[in-house]
Every structure is written in structure tokens, then in C-alpha cells.
Design brief:
- This protein is α/β, with parallel strands linked by helices.
- It has 4 domains: 2-41 and 175-221, no CATH class; 47-142, Nucleic acid-binding proteins (OB fold (Dihydrolipoamide Acetyltransferase, E2P), Beta Barrel); 255-445, Rossmann fold; 456-612, Rossmann fold (3-Layer(aba) Sandwich), CATH 3.40.50.
- 42% of the residues lie in helices and 17% in strands.
- It has 25 helices and 22 strands.
- Strand 2 and strand 3 form a beta hairpin.
- The relative contact order is 0.09.
- The structure holds adenosine-5'-diphosphate and magnesium ion.
- Adenosine-5'-diphosphate is lined by residues 267, 269-270, 273, 296, 298-304, 425, 449, 554, 583.
- Residues 460-629 form the Helicase C-terminal domain.
- Keywords: ATP-binding, DNA damage, DNA recombination, DNA repair, DNA-binding, Helicase, Hydrolase, Isomerase, Nucleotide-binding.
- Residues 283-445 form the Helicase ATP-binding domain.
- Its EC number is 5.6.2.4.
- It catalyses: ATP + H2O = ADP + phosphate + H(+); Couples ATP hydrolysis with the unwinding of duplex DNA by translocating in the 3'-5' direction.
């Protein structure tokens, strides 16, 4: 493979300098190796011909066999196009070209058989194909039954480089390497264990498969390679960090933990909470620094887990701090925690951007002399001027607002970096978590406290609004509270503001005997807090809001969540919003309002919400429908992922296999120094382009 990676693409038969330059600028293909790794996006089953009379709206690209009846050039200048009437005996369709018109008109003849590949589209009841691939049936020999379709750019197509041309180039190379062979960087025992084909077979079959199953095997192998090297990258990074960075050892469970556990526990821990606390304890006792992600659905009781772990830190003569993304959340944590620990004499204080200077001075002093045990706050707690005497444990709540940069700042808060627990209610499927938060260990609370009734979720159209609001009225009458949420998305702020304000007026007009609070993201923080406070203390019955309430607010008396324009929210976001209700013992309701005519896809998406309350299922569905999107982009570990064929969303099983294989390799050859791993090391360096950068520590 090394030789192929070093061979310029222009030496491949049929390429030459001009096409080589084009391939390089358009697709980044420079070497023969790059060309071989330009994998087909999918395949067309060449054994199957479609009849024009059987076309339907949702067809992918298909092939049709028939003849052109006539050609015509229509329009003028830049707007001109060539149309051909094409008949396969069952019906006719229009074939349209916007480019190379003159040349194509010369090239194609009437009364000659052609096979066309393209995606049928329907316009005013007539079928047409735009820029299909056209070829005489006789050209179809020598390929398997599956015709690969390669990712291309517009510019390449304009220059006559279509899928078929790419395939011909690749086939030349594949035929050659079949003779010479390529070095496989993957040890044969791994391949054998997983039943994956050798590299040379996979490269041949992915481009020139003789059957669908053989294409699948080849794709699995190439996906595995990508994922394997990604995992290798993440694991070596994590291991290096663990090896080089020591941690505080917390061997004791002492006074604070024990007294609290015996005397102040508000309820019995769930099995999942107990298990997670054990995992965290083991980390903190190991002598290595903990970086652990705690996932737990909304309402699963992460706060109590965090508190118990903070008490362990206190028992080992260190301080603890907890960070939340907003002032409201920080205040809520502060209140919950200071109330819970009041009987055992722990000094807890809150620090946010709006803490007055005088109080701030007290906090700074007490942090430095060690008399302040637990500090709760916003980003303010990690500012440089906040100095702890001995910070042993940090909790970060609702992790998605805190990146690796903030974590790195915490590492530096002490000579020995404190243990870090990152808590998130955004459930991420395990395989994705392993990759996206590759340097974090993961614990999961997969059980809700007993006695919770699942929220009843309904999808309702605009014309049911009256009924929906009547339902809300019944709950209010029973003394419960309700949220009404409007989307507020930046580009549309004006429109959204109007709908939010109209909603507010509608509610005030229709529910005159109830008190209505009103919050949105553009309010001053103090005003926002005031409004939230009104709702939290039941001085308001209805909260009309934007998604500022999404994260963490706890109002157990609220039993109704109405989400307007629900189609504009992502599933995970809807799930977070829904998590605001169902926190008490009574039945709660979440109503997703949408306009009348939503697409089939949108309906399917929203039906995920009505069919399950399990955050992991919602997240998984979200991932399948939208792909990992943001998550992949904001890799917490700061490691770049460049997956061309594998998908973290849909190749979960392979991610896990790749992880295990990479881990085994590093176990017995941590630096890939053994002679049998030379090719692997080279491939890794090529993919991650940082040869000899193994000492990198963030
Ligand atoms: P989240 O995981 O969303 O942060 P919280 O920690 O806010 O959840 O807990 C949600 C609610 O459940 C709180 O009111 C909390 O007091 C309660 N809770 C937590 N653990 C338990 C438990 N083991 N049994 C009963 N209620 C619990
Ligand atoms: Mg919480």
C-alpha cells in the first residue's frame, strides 16, 4: 500500500496530468492509494431494468433500456438545453441535458439501443431524467452485476469525469494490484476472528463486487479500518494521558459521607445510582485522575450522585466544586445541596457573575484557607482568580455547554489535577460516546427513581388548539402548572418573537384568572431569573417561554408541557423539554403542536416522541435520522474524525469491535513498535498525519 500511496495518480492509464490535477483539486485524490480509497457511495443493480411505466416518486437512480425517438435544442444562450424523447416500449420520458449540448447531440443517435442510468423525476405528470449516464448495451460487459456509483463533484461531471470514468481508472489499478498484492496493515488474526476479508480482496470487491454480499463484506472491512484507526488514535491519547497524569487518591469513606448516608438521605438510592457511585469511587481510589461522563436521563437523580461523590472528596480533606451552565441552574443546585447537607455542618457557597464583591471576597478567602467545602456556581468558579486551597473534585452539570477547554482549565486548578465528573442528560448511544468523548470514561444511570409515571405525549395539529388548551385548563384548575414553549431560532428572531408574544397574549386573554410568567433568551438575566422564580415558587401558574427553560429546571408541580411548532425542534431537544414535566407523582402531559401539513418524515420523527419516553431510544432515533451532526463536529477530546465510509451513527457494532481490537493491540504494544505492527503504524501516521507525535498531551 505504501508504494501505491507514493505513486502519483497521473501515471494511471487514462488519467494524465490534466485529470490528475482535477481529481486532486476536486476530490483530494493525489496518489493511486487515494484513488483506491475513493469508495462507491452505493451500487446500482445492473441486472435489473426498470420500465418507465413503473416509475414512482421515491425511486433512487435506476436503469432503463430503450431508444431515443427524437432530440431538440430548446432555449437560448445560457438557458439552452438539449432534450431527448426516450422510449422503452412501456412509456416515454424526457431526457434533459444543460451542458455539452452540441457535443451530446452529435454523440447520441436515434434508433439505437442505450442503457440510461439516472434518477427519474416527475414534472407536471411527465417523467424525466436530467443528465443520466448513457451507454450502449454492448459496453456493459466485464463488470459485475453491481455498478458502483462514486461520489463526484459538479465540476468533474462537467469535465466528463463521471462514475464510469472513475470506475475504469480504478479497475486498471485493481487488476494490477491483484497481481502484485498490497501490504495489509491489519493483523491476520484480527481479520480471521472478525471474518473480514484481506485488504487486497476488500479493495477489489468494494470497487468491482461480484455480488451484493461481497460488496458488503468489502465495505465492512474498509469501515473497520477507518474505525480501528480512529479508536487507536483516541485510545493512545487517553492512555498517554492516564500514564503521565497522576491523580489524587481518595481511599477514605469518612464522617461526611457516612453521616449523610445514615441520617440525611432523602430517599433510598436506585440500583443504578448505587452502581454509578461505586464506579466513581473506584476511579477516585485508583490514584489516577478521573475524567468520567455520567449520563442519565432527565430526572434520573444525577445531583444526588454528584453530592455523595463530593462528600467523599471532603472526607479526604479536599474541596469540591460544581459548575452549571446558567445562574438559574446554579441557584437550584445550591439550594438543593445546601438544604440537604445543612444537618452535617458543611460550608457551601454560591459564586456566579452576579455575586456581589463583598460576598466574593469572603468566598475567595474561605476557598484559600480551606474553610469553604463546596463551591457551586457558573463559569465564574473556574476563573483564574478563584483559587482553591485543595480542590479535589469538580462536577460539571449539563456538559454540552462545557468543552474540553474548560476541563483543561480545571485540570490546572491544582498541582495534582482534581477528579472530574461531567454530567449530561443528553443521552448518547454508547458507541458514539466512546468516540465523541473518547477520553472520558462513561457511567450510565439507566433507571428512574420509583413511582414516576411516564409522561403522556401527544401530537396535535393547530385545529385542535382549543381542545389542547381546555386540557391545560383542567390541570390548572387542579392546582397544577403548565409550560408553553415556543421555538426561538436566531435567523427568525423577529417572527419568533411575535409568535411568542402573541402566545403570551392569547394565554392571558383566555386564562384571565391565572398568573402568567414570561421568559425568553433576550431578557436581562435578572428579569429572566425573576420570571423563572415566579413559576418555580408557584406565584405563576403558566410559564410562556422559549427554550431557555430547556436545561435542568425542576418544578415538580408542573404537569403540562405544550410545545408550539414542535416540528422546528430536534428530538433530543423535545426530550429535554418533556423532561421538565413528570417530576412529581401525578400524571403529566406533553403536547406537541404542529401545523396541519407536516411531511411524512416530520411526522415519523415526532412519532418517536409519542411512542417512547426512553431518552436513549429517542437519542438513537435522532442519530439515525439526522446523523451525529454536531456531536461529531465538537469532538470533546479535540481529536479530528474524518470518516469517509464508516458512520458512527449506523455502524455502532463495528465501532465497538474496532475499539476492542485497538485496545488489544495497544495492550501488548503500546507504541506500535513491534515489527509486525510496522505497517499499522505507518497507516496510522498517514491517516492522522502526525507521525512521531505520540507524546502529545493536551
Ligand atoms: P437529573 O438527573 O435530571 O439532574 P435530579 O438530580 O434533579 O435529576 O433528580 C430529579 C428528582 O428526583 C429530584 O427531585 C430528586 O430529588 C429526585 N430523586 C433523585 N434520586 C432519587 C431516588 N433515588 N429516589 C427518589 N427520588 C429521587
Ligand atoms: Mg440535573
Amino acid at each position: 500500500m505504501q508504494r501505491l500511496n507514493a505513486t502519483d495518480i497521473k501515471y494511471v492509464k487514462g488519467v494524465g496530468p490534466k485529470r490528475a490535477a482535477l481529481l486532486s483539486s476536486e476530490l483530494g485524490i493525489k496518489s493511486v492509494g487515494d484513488l483506491l480509497r475513493h469508495f462507491p457511495a452505493h451500487y446500482i443493480d445492473r441486472t435489473r431494468m426498470y420500465a418507465i411505466s413503473s416509475f414512482s416518486g421515491e425511486m433512487p437512480a435506476v436503469q432503463v433500456r430503450g431508444r431515443f425517438v427524437s432530440f431538440a435544442i430548446q432555449g437560448e444562450g445560457a438557458k439552452s438545453r438539449l432534450t431527448g424523447l426516450f422510449s422503452d416500449g412501456t412509456a416515454t420520458m424526457e431526457v434533459v441535458w444543460f451542458r455539452q449540448i452540441k457535443k451530446l447531440k452529435e454523440l447520441y443517435a436515434t434508433m439505437t439501443d442505450y442503457v440510461l442510468f439516472g434518477k427519474p423525476t416527475s414534472f407536471c405528470g411527465r417523467w424525466s431524467m436530467v443528465h443520466p449516464e448513457v451507454e450502449p448495451p454492448s459496453d456493459m460487459h466485464g463488470e459485475g452485476s453491481l455498478r458502483p456509483v462514486y461520489p463526484l463533484t459538479e465540476k468533474l461531471r462537467n469535465q466528463g469525469v463521471n462514475s464510469r470514468v472513475i470506475h475504469t481508472m480504478i479497475r486498471t489499478v485493481v487488476d494490477r494490484i491483484a497481481l502484485g498484492g498490497v501490504t495489509d496493515s491489519m493483523p491476520p488474526d484480527i481479520l480471521r476472528r472478525l471474518g473480514l476479508p484481506p485488504l487486497s480482496t476488500a479493495l477489489r470487491d468494494i470497487h468491482c463486487p461480484s455480488s451484493p454480499s461481497c460488496a458488503d463484506m468489502a465495505r465492512a472491512r474498509m469501515k473497520f479500518d477507518e474505525l480501528f484507526y480512529l479508536q487507536l488514535d483516541i485510545l493512545q491519547y487517553t492512555r498517554r494521558r492516564k500514564l503521565s497524569v497522576g491523580g489524587m487518591r481518595f481511599p477514605h469513606i469518612g464522617h461526611y459521607f457516612n453521616t449523610f448516608y445514615k441520617e440525611c438521605m432523602p430517599f433510598e438510592l436506585t440500583g443504578a445510582q448505587k452502581r454509578v457511585i461505586k464506579e466513581i469511587r473506584a476511579d477516585m481510589g485508583s490514584g489516577r485522575q478521573m475524567n468520567r461522563l455520567l449520563q442519565g436521563d432527565v430526572g434520573s437523580g444525577k445531583t444526588l450522585v454528584a453530592l455523595l461523590c463530593m462528600l467523599i472528596a471532603l472526607d479526604n480533606s479536599t474541596q469540591a466544586c460544581m459548575m452549571a451552565p446558567t445562574e438559574i441552574l446554579a441557584a437550584q443546585h445550591y439550594e438543593t445541596i445546601s438544604r440537604l447537607v445543612a444537618p452535617i455542618g458543611i460550608n457551601v457557597k454560591m459564586l456566579t457573575g452576579s455575586t456581589p464583591a463583598s460576598q466574593r471576597a469572603v468566598i475567595h478567602r474561605q476557598l484559600e484557607d480551606g474553610s469553604l467545602h463546596i463551591l457551586i456556581g457558573t463559569h465564574a468558579v473556574i476563573e483564574d482568580n478563584v483559587v482553591f486551597r485543595n480542590l479535589g473534585f469538580t462536577v460539571i452539570d449539563e456538559q454540552h455547554r462545557f468543552g474540553v477547554a474548560q476541563r483543561a482549565r480545571i485540570w490546572k486548578k491544582n498541582t495534582v489535577p482534581p477528579h472530574i465528573l461531567v454530567m449530561t442528560a443528553t443521552p448518547i448511544p454508547r458507541t458514539l460516546a466512546m468516540t465523541v468523548y473518547g477520553d472520558l470514561d462513561v457511567s450510565v444511570i439507566d433507571e428512574l427513581p420509583p413511582g414516576r409515571k411516564p409522561v403522556t405525549t401527544m401530537l396535535r395539529f393547530d385545529d385542535h388548539r382549543i381542545d389542547v388548551y381546555k386540557g391545560m385548563g383542567r390541570e390548572l384548575k387542579a392546582g397544577r402548572q403548565a409550560y408553553i414553549v415556543y421555538p426561538l431560532i436566531k435567523e427568525n428572531e423577529k417572527v419568533d418573537m411575535r409568535s411568542l408574544e402573541e402566545g403570551y397574549e392569547f394565554v392571558r386573554d383566555n386564562f384571565p384568572s391565572y398568573r402568567v410568567a414570561f421568559v425568553h433568551g433576550r431578557m436581562k438575566p435578572a428579569e429572566k431569573d425573576h420570571q423563572m422564580e415566579l413559576f418555580a415558587t408557584h406565584q405563576a401558574d403558566i410559564l410562556v417561554a422559549t427554550t431557555v427553560i430547556e436545561v435542568g429546571v425542576n418544578v415538580p408541580n408542573a404537569s403540562v408541557m405544550i410545545i408550539e411548532n414542535a416540528e422546528r425542534f430536534g428530538l433530543s431537544q423535545l426530550h429535554q423539554l418533556r423532561g421538565r414535566v413528570g417530576r412529581g407523582a401525578d400524571q403529566s402531559y406533553c403536547i406537541l403542536m404542529t401545523k396541519q401539513n407536516i411531511s411524512a418524515d416530520t411526522r415519523k420523527r415526532l412519532q418517536v416522541m409519542t411512542s417512547t419516553t426512553d431518552g436513549f431510544l429517542v437519542a438513537e432515533a435522532d442519530l439515525k435520522m439526522r446523523g451525529p451532526g454536531d456531536l461529531e463536529g465538537t469532538l470533546q477530546s479535540g481529536l479530528a474524525v474524518n470518516l469517509k465510509i464508516a458512520s458512527l451513527a449506523s455502524d455502532g457494532r463495528l465501532v465497538e469491535l474496532a475499539r476492542n481490537a485497538a485496545s488489544d493491540i495497544l495492550d501488548n504494544d503500546p507504541f506500535l513498535e513491534k515489527p509486525e505492527h510496522v505497517a499499522m503504524r505507518r497507516e496510522y501516521d498517514r491517516m492522522y498525519q502526525r507521525a512521531s507525535d505520540w507524546s502529545r498531551i493536551s
